[in-house]
Design brief:
The protein is built from 14 helices and 15 strands. The chain is of the alpha+beta class. The chain has two domains: 151 residues, Jelly Rolls (Sandwich); 175 residues, Tetratricopeptide repeat domain (Serine Threonine Protein Phosphatase 5, Tetratricopeptide repeat, Alpha Horseshoe). A hairpin with a 4-residue loop joins strand 6 and strand 7.
Length: 437
């Protein structure tokens, strides 16, 4: 064995080991090469098959997961309301066009049924528009003809109906309302519960309870509130129209006292709240009592509890009901304090914002209260520029501004009103004011 002298001892030793290994291992013959290649190919194929089966199983599992997820989404959508909490509705015998306008199929009218139980039905010949829907309720505009409305009584519900230039706030009730655009006449008949109404020629908010009918004629500036005569009601129902008020009936007659059945049970209920801390809102059930038209029982509760305690303990819903009840009985001081308590105890809430508008109406009805009314209207418009009372707040601001500062100062408000509410209740007055030199 020859060793290269130029290599190091370690390199020479490695060469010797390589030569010994080559002699020990016989040369690779073609058959052995084929067998080795076949063995390697079989092993590679087995590994590829395992990976393929594993990939197929993963695809099957992924498909099953996707199908299960899709099924869950379908079931969840059917079983639950939308995540936003908005009330849903379905339409019967009609459709909703662009802008929310309602169109009936044929001459039977149309109905909207809401997911929480409320039903709004436009009677034959009526025209209307669904303006908005949210988690608390909806707002419907009646432009012509009658509609029958059944609102489900739920805590925190907020339903509004525009009948011509009048705004009806629903407390949970059943009633029929009609607006005659040609004659500018509102007719409202209560079957159950209570509603409040604001609008032109009304000095204060008017509450109408079950068994009463309200008729307002704008051109004549007539407002008539009276008890429904049962015989006349049956005839009107049969004829499919609202009964009309007569001149001999008293205007804005206060309703009789509410039935005493509920009041008898209230002292005990009120006394159970004696240990409640003032900062913890208490529900006395006044919102439900107001919806049932039991106005006097609410004021009776306050008399027993004491006004200070009532204002400090009552929940937001109950404070709102107390303010309505006080306005209905012309107890403006209690109404004012209830609205102020609403704003101080529940700042930032929708009811606190609405209280600013209602405080403006109270101040406007008082002699010398115009400046304060303007302040409240501005606060409301700042807090709720598109709120339920925005059109009326801006219209009342325009009228109050004209009285206090003259037509020149009011023209800017009139221009703003026409830009925001070109078809609003005060649009005619705003155009006339804008054209006045």
């Amino acid at each position: 064995m020859e060793v290269d002298s130029d290599k190091t001892p370690e390199g020479a030793m490695l060469d010797q080991l390589a030569q010994l290994a080559s002699r020990a291992i016989p040369p690779m013959t073609p058959p052995r090469q084929q067998r080795g290649f076949a063995a390697v190919s079989a092993r590679l194929a087995a590994r590829h098959g395992q990976r393929r089966r594993r990939f197929q199983l993963e695809l099957v599992a992924l498909g099953a997961g996707a199908a299960a997820c899709a099924l869950w989404l379908v079931l969840a959508t059917r079983a639950k309301p939308p995540a936003s909490g908005v009330i849903t509705y379905r339409i019967e015998a009609g459709e909703i066009l662009a802008g929310g306008y309602l169109r009936s199929f044929g001459d039977r009218g149309m109905t909207l049924r809401f997911s929480e139980g409320t039903k709004l039905a436009l009677l034959p010949g009526a025209r209307g528009r669904l303006q908005s829907v949210d988690e608390k309720g909806a707002r419907l505009a009646i432009e012509q003809g009658p509609a029958r409305i059944e609102v489900s009584n739920r805590p925190g519900a907020h339903w509004l109906v525009d009948a011509g230039p009048f705004l009806i706030t629903v407390k949970g009730t059943v009633f029929t309302v009609g607006w005659n655009a040609k004659n500018e006449q509102l007719d409202l008949r209560m079957e159950k519960g209570l509603v409040s109404i604001t609008g032109p020629i009304l000095e204060n908010v008017i509450l109408v309870r079950s068994g009463q009918q309200l008729a307002i004629n704008l051109p004549k500036k007539e407002v008539v509130l009276h008890e429904i005569d049962s015989d006349r009601e049956r005839l009107a129902t049969k004829a499919g129209e609202l009964p009309s008020a007569t001149a001999s009936e008293p205007a804005l007659a206060p309703p009789p006292a509410a039935p005493p059945a509920r009041s008898a049970a209230l002292p005990g209920r009120a006394s159970q709240r004696a240990g409640t801390r003032a900062h913890s809102p208490v529900s006395y059930g006044w919102a439900a009592a107001l919806a049932a038209g039991e106005v006097d029982s609410i004021l009776g509760d306050v008399e027993r509890l004491g006004l200070k305690r009532s204002l400090g303990e009552a929940s937001s819903d109950d404070l709102s009901a107390l303010a309505d009840a006080a306005r209905y009985r012309r107890q403006q001081d209690i109404a004012r304090q209830s609205l102020l308590a609403q704003r101080s105890r529940f700042p930032g809430s929708g009811r606190a914002c609405d209280a600013a508008f209602l405080l403006g109406r109270l101040e406007e009805s008082n002699e010398g209260g115009g400046p304060k009314a303007l302040e409240w209207y501005d606060q409301y418009l700042e807090g709720a520029p598109t709120g339920a009372y925005a059109s009326e707040a801006l219209g009342r601001k325009m009228i109050a501004t004209q009285k206090l500062m003259g037509g020149k100062a009011a023209r800017a408000v009139a221009q703003e009103y026409l830009e925001r509410f070109p078809t609003g209740a005060y649009a005619g007055a705003a155009r006339a004011l804008r054209q006045t030199p």
